[in-house]
Amino acid sequence: MQYKYLLHEKDLPTHWYNVLADMGPPPPPVHPATGEPIGPEMLAPIFPQSLIQQEVSTERWIAIPDEVREVYKLWRPTPLYRAHRLERALDTPARIYYKYEGVSPAGSHKPNTAVAQAYYNKAEGVRRLTTETGAGQWGSALAMACAFFGLELKVYMVKVSYHQKPYRRVLMETWGAQVVPSPSPDTQAGRRVLEQDPDSPGSLGIAISEAVEDAATRDDTKYSLGSVLNHVLLHQTVMGLEALRQMELAGDYPDVVIGCVGGGSNYAGLSLPFVGERLTQGKRTRFVAVEPEACPSLTRGQYTYDFGDTAETTPLLKMHTLGHTFIPPSIHAGGLRYHGMAPIISKLVEDGVMEARAYHQTKVFEAAVQFARAEGIVPAPESAHAVRAAIDEALAAREAGERRIILFNLSGHGFLDLGAYDQYLSGKLEDYAYPEEKVREALASLPRVGP
Ligand SMILES: *Cc1c(COP(=O)(O)O)cnc(C)c1O
Fold this sequence. Notes:
This protein is of the alpha/beta class. It has helices at 40-43, 49-56, 66-72, 84-90, 111-123, 137-149, 159-164, 166-174, 188-196, 204-216, 230-250, 265-281, 297-300, 343-350, 361-375, 381-400, 418-425, 436-443; strands spanning 4-5, 15-17, 61-63, 80-82, 95-100, 128-133, 152-158, 178-182, 221-223, 256-260, 286-292, 302-307, 316-321, 355-359, 405-410. Strand 6 (128-133), helix 6 (137-149) and strand 7 (152-158) form a beta-alpha-beta unit. The model has no long low-confidence stretch (mean pLDDT 95). The structure holds pyridoxal-5'-phosphate. Residues 108, 110, 137, 227, 260-266, 335-336, 380, 382-383, 411-412 line the site of pyridoxal-5'-phosphate.
């Protein structure tokens, strides 16, 4: 019985796939003051030229530099598994496949773009990068990438996570990054918050403002973002391109492709090559994006222009948003607590190509534990949202007596999230009601576009 579909090193994709060649492009980012589309010059102080070009490119295929492919080869191509044991446990005629990104040294899909971003910055003479991190998944991926390319990295880590989740900080420091709790006294943005509230627990929004200010005020430094933007989604398509080949090896084609969404990058990375085939070859594949009920941007947000950060420093992006001032409840899937969504994913949902679904965290952990007991791998709490949806699709297939082919992304492992499993197993995990009141408040602060 085949359960693992492996590709050879020589089968590692040579190009990333750019879906903007095949879909109607999302509305452009605009300047908050004028409502006019922003030019590349607005991004130049914080991003290198090559990444700005990728951000607006409509070329279908973009070559992966040899130096990036060399690093990818440390853990890529990643395996695609058929979940025979889970299928048996569910007694379903469905076939469940999953792409496993937990085999990267940082334990998630995030190095796929971290390595590319570090490479392009280094190639343009940048000496130092800054970024923000919440629980530390993105910071650790970028720390590893910077170590490979000899770049300095300063990570502004949300203060409450810095103190509560020391392991990822240690991981970042092991790879050579400097990590400070945010708000920090090192930037104007940080000092302003500390003056008003010395005990501020921090937020991703504040940390972004600090990292952007640091990069914008130094010639040798640029800023790096781990999700949402077009170039990030582009780099992640290496997963979906591998999965296309691997599904072919398995002799199946997915009826439904599933992934969890925070900013949308891991799901885009797996799904966009399949979306391309639906758009250009008339395939009927369904696409399901899964989010937490506590931070339901796609299922309950508005599709409108909003800031990417709480401090209102970014251009406005057209996306599904809960409002940039929305602070989501502190669920365990830290990587899914973002108020907005990648504009590409938002557009595909708006166009009816993708559907979205939200779950409460106890249902998510129930699925994660069932998966771990059947397949062995302990999923990251973020990835467990995709597991939940895959199991529900398989159960629906059983009801319908249908041999549905399911593919989902297992975006990372949960070894640094065992505290969350401990809470679930001891019955202490709580669900948060959908914060309708709070979302309404936050939506009231949406920017008015234009002069
Ligand atoms: C960060 C993270 C996510 C969410 O980010 P996306 O950009 O939506 O992919 C999902 N899974 C894991 C394991 C993560 O670390």
